[in-house]
Amino acid sequence: MIKGFAGRKGVQLLFYALTIWFLWFAQTTLDDYSIRVLNNIAIFIILAVSYNLINGITGQLSLEPNGFVAIGAYVATLFLLDSDALEYQYYLEDPSSIVLLMHTKSFIIALLAGGAAATFAAMLLSFPVFRVRGDYLAIVTLGFGFIIRILAINNPQITNGSLGLNDIPDHTNLYWSGGLAMVAVTVILNIIYSKYGRAMKAVRDDEDTAIAMGVNTFKIKTIAFSTSAFMEGVGGGLLACLLTSVSPDQFTFFLTFQLLIIIVLGGLGSTTGAIIGTILVIGGAEWLRFLDEPMNLFGWTSPALPGMRMVVFSIILILVMLFAREGIMGKKELFDYFKTKKPKEKK
Amino acid sequence: MILNIDELTMRFGGVVAVNSISFGIKKGTIFGLIGPNGAGKTTIFNMITGNYIATSGSIKFNEKELVGVKPHLIVREGIARTFQNIRLFNSMSVLDNVLIGFDFQAKYTFLEAVTRLPRFFFEEKRIKKRAYEILEYLDILNFADTKATDLSYGQQRKVEIARALATKPKMLLLDEPAAGMNPVETEELAKIIFKAREDFGLTILLIEHDMKFVNRLCEEVLVLDYGKTIFEGAPSEAIQNKEVISAYLGDFKHD
Asked: Shortest Cα distance from A231 to chain B (angstroms)?
């Protein structure tokens, strides 16, 4: 009866096996630079698929992920740095006692704490923001992203202000980032293929009708928002432990913008599309780096053009938007193409 | 009386859309709400379903006050509706559209969905089975996996009714169900409404302009004009009533 499910399961399992093998292969044989890029891709997959849940699946145009990533990154960092390191680093103001108390050696607990803090913020935020819809929601959530950054700058007793925090233990490796990316994708897919995911899509298509079918749309939107915040928080923690430093400048609107490009390019509402989009955007930005350097074209050497890759990148984006209006995957998932043509439905 | 409306009034600023209207609907009847455009019929629907909060008056469904209850909870009380202009979930399949109606009846939590505990599979299987039953009942089983927007108008209307039936209603509100349908489709719709009333034990309140359709279906009608009741009774009498005729066609003054 649940056809297509078997197809999805099979493809999913195959992907897991391949991914695990690839993670092991990459972590053991590739050079530092490639591992770094792959780590980045894995973390952005977490961010993109979770952002896609609220923006693409639930259709609530929100622009706050930089805020949640920042919360996750800061909280995880504060948990991982011990009080000596903090006393040493804070010289704008003494660290507050709460910050000194927060400590754990466990990476996973720090990540979960970051996620939990972001979820808490999302739940509080959902009460005011879901009173408005559409463009207004975008503006309100955009404001939240700014507020978090300004709070981080102006509370040096907690965040060390614009100096940021350094010497974060570099726990993030491909097993962590890739493994958590797989967990994130699985959880998101499990949500999408349940009554919660159906209700989210219903809210996207026609919120008033969803209400008229007995769906508590506020609850559904809050669930989508909080889940996506949790994963963005965890992603923030991973990012902090990859870069080994956090500062407010990492979490500007550009981060949100990058995620928005990823999910629009991949196809709003498609989880596998978000993964493909991440690989193209984050990977592509690295692979196109040669464009910034001096080039030898038929005997004529062009000067170094920093930013050239962004120009090429924008052109690619424009082309995709022209020829694939709904992004690469549209609303479809990759495994939809593996579905066997089903025989006539029996009752 | 399954639904009791008493002195119901709705004001939008200075405009009185519905002016102290009272009526009751007996359990198991098909009740028609008719009147010219702008008479306040859809406003009454929206007040019953909780989309508008009545300025004053009361709506009692099975002795329970509905004014001020949130719309999604009114559905759970057993009132389902269809829309004047068909509103399906466009990106979803017909089956998924109907499954939305079962949303609040699927008893599993968010964590059970994420971790795929047995109750998730059990409940999903249960509601899917019932969704297929409803699709079969309305003879649209073949389109279960078709995108809702790819269907013809008449079939889309059926999907809307299927979705409403999925919410396990005691009362069904149909807003101009026959609008835009050809005579064959209208005839089929009338049969469906009769049949569904018997099989699901429904009470039906419908808005309709097609008087032939109303005459055939409804046991009782309420005629509205400018937010006021101008006639209440059998449909066959309504079309002979002077006030009703003048409301629809305008007054003729003879010298």
From this structure: 14
pLDDT digits (tens, 9 = 90+) for A83-136: 888 888 887 888 888 888 888 889 999 999 999 999 999 999 999 999 888 889
Domain B1-78+169-255: give its CATH code.
3.40.50.300
A343 pLDDT more than 50: no
Task: Say if the Cβ atoms of B96 and A198 lie within 8 Å.
Answer: yes
Q: Provide the residue ranges of all domains of chain B, joining segments of one domain with +.
A: 1-78+169-255, 90-167
Alpha-carbon distance A105 to A99, whole Å? 15
Residue window 149-208, chain A: list those with CB within 8 Å of chain B: 187, 190-191, 194-196, 198-199, 201-202, 204-206, 208
Residue A283 has pLDDT above 60, yes or no: yes
Length of chain A: 347
Q: How far is B246 from chain A (nearest CA, A)?
A: 35
| A16-30, A188-202, B181-195, B237-251: segment of lowest average pLDDT | B237-251
Cβ neighbours of B134 in A, within 8 Å? none
Q: What is the mean pLDDT of chain B?
A: 91
Please tell me which of the candidates B91, B106, B115 has its beta carbon nearest to residue A195: B106
Q: Do B102 and A195 touch (CB under 8 A)?
A: yes
Domains of chain A: 5-252 (1.10.3470)
User: Measured between CA atoms, how close is A139 to chain B, in angstroms?
Assistant: 26
Nearest to A318 by CA among A249, A264, A244: A264
Helix residue spans in chain A (DSSP H): 5-29, 32-52, 65-80, 83-89, 97-101, 107-129, 135-154, 156-159, 174-192, 195-205, 207-212, 217-243, 253-266, 271-278, 284-287, 308-323
Contact B89, A202 (CB under 8 A): yes
